[in-house]
Amino acid sequence: MIVDNEDVTVLDYSFSKKELFLLAKFLRQKQEELPLGLESLYKTLEDSIYNSLSLDEVRRFYS
Q1: pLDDT per residue as tens digits for the range 13-25
Q2: Cα separation of 31 and 12, whole Å?
Q3: Residues 32-36: what's their mean pLDDT?
Q4: Cα(23)–Cα(27) distance, integer angstroms
Q5: pLDDT-based confidence at residue 2 (cuts at 50, 70, 90)
Q6: Cα–Cα dist 2/57, whole Å
Q7: Taking the model in full, what pTM does it have?
Q8: CA gap 22, 61 in Å, rounded
Q9: Whole-angstrom distance, CA of residue 19 vs CA of residue 25
Q10: To pair with 9 at 20 to 30 A between CA atoms, which of 15, 39, 49, 60?
Q11: How far is CA 11 from the centre of its chain?
Q12: How far out from the chain centre does Cα 30 lie?
């Protein structure tokens, strides 16, 4: 499927909290290897994680 308009949603999926954490941790470990164009996804995921955890939980999660 080719989409010319980047504002069009082509995927609607509800992630579980565990899936978000695992994906965020994986992307954090691989952030230097992320293909161009995934920066927005990565930032949105990180913001979601940060907004759902306390500062101590964030530190433990990313250590």
Answers
A1: 888 888 888 898 8
A2: 23
A3: 90
A4: 6
A5: low
A6: 40
A7: 0.65
A8: 10
A9: 10
A10: 49
A11: 14
A12: 12
Q: Is residue 53 classed exposed, middle or buried when 0-12, 13-18 and 19+ CB atoms within 10 A define those classes?
A: middle
CA distance 1 to 49: 30
* pLDDT at residue 7, rounded to an integer: 66
| CA distance to 21, 49, 61, per residue, from 57 (Å) | 11, 10, 6
What is the number of H-type helices and E-type strands within the chain?
3, 0
pLDDT above 70 coverage of the chain, percent: 84
User: Using only C-alpha atoms, what is the Rg of the chain?
Assistant: 13
3-state secondary structure 34-59: CCCCCHHHHHHHHHHHHHHCCHHHHH
For residue 33, the model assigns a pLDDT of 92
